[in-house]
């Protein structure tokens, strides 16, 4: 089994042969939940592409340990970067979508309040829901041993999503009536890919028109219709394979 990953606030001054301290909530999880002991392997990451591999050199109390640094690893920004614009699903299926997309390898997730969304983020609920999505991405990033965690952006309106699509090197709306399979789309080798996943009720004609004007065509994944909470994960996996990022 690979070494567990924990999130560190900063690894800017860490060098092989030195030490780094893990405390706070992450330290408590390492000491009191995972029960790591001296000599066990551990990985720390800043979530921005830098990681430290080392061993536990000391444990203090219930929430603090010292890591002896063995090596450093830096991951370059992915190319092409994959962003999924995720319409708000019902219930806790939003966190499910974020979790599985993160584990698969998505680079950014954008919550979108589509016209046909049953779920609406407003006021205090919006802040709490966004915090849940971000916490889910963070925990899934650690669980899947990522060094670079996906960004979960602030929610966007349809007009803002259209602007995001217009700036992408490849933009697509996942739609069961799309005439072209995503599996055969011409993809860029660099830059950005942005996919739109609609809500349970589907993307409205007005939204499709706005996205088409921004350069995003409708594409289908296959012959079946996926739920909004799984479509982004399936599409991300397909693109990671096609772009060579999974090679």
Automatic annotation (TrEMBL):
Domain of life: Bacteria
Sequence ranges assigned to domain Ribosomal RNA small subunit methyltransferase E PUA-like in this UniProt record: 22-69
A single Gene Ontology CC term: cytoplasm
EC number(s) per entry: 2.1.1.193
InterPro entries (UniProt xref): Alpha/beta_knot_MTases (IPR029028), PUA-like_sf (IPR015947), RsmE (IPR006700), RsmE_MTase_dom (IPR046886), RsmE_PUA-like (IPR046887), tRNA_m1G_MTases_N (IPR029026)
Family to which this protein belongs: Belongs to the RNA methyltransferase RsmE family.
The protein's name: Ribosomal RNA small subunit methyltransferase E
Organism lineage: Bacteria, Bacillati, Actinomycetota, Actinomycetes, Kitasatosporales
């Amino acid at each position: 089994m690979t070494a567990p990953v924990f999130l560190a606030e900063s690894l800017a001054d860490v060098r092989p042969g030195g030490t780094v301290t893990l405390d706070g909530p992450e330290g408590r999880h390492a000491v009191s939940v995972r029960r790591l002991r001296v000599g066990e392997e551990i990985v720390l990451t800043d979530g921005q592409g830098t990681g430290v591999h080392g061993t536990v050199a000391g444990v203090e109390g219930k929430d603090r340990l010292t890591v002896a640094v063995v090596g450093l690893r830096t991951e370059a920004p992915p190319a092409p970067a994959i962003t999924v614009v995720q319409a708000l699903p019902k219930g806790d299926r939003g966190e499910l979508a974020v979790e599985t997309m993160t584990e698969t390898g998505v680079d950014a997730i954008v919550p979108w309040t589509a016209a046909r969304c049953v779920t609406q983020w407003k006021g205090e609920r919006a802040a709490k829901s966004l915090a849940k999505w971000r916490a889910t991405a963070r925990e899934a990033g650690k669980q899947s041993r990522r060094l670079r965690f996906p960004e979960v952006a602030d929610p966007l309106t349809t007009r803002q999503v259209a602007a995001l699509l217009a700036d992408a090197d490849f933009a697509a709306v996942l739609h069961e009536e799309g005439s072209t399979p995503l599996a055969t789309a011409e993809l860029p080798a660099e830059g950005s890919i942005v996919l739109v996943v609609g809500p349970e009720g589907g993307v409205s004609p007005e939204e499709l028109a706005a996205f088409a004007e921004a350069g995003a065509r409708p594409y289908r994944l296959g012959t079946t219709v996926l739920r909004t909470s799984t479509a982004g994960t399936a599409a991300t996996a397909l693109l990671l394979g096609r772009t060579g990022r999974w090679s």
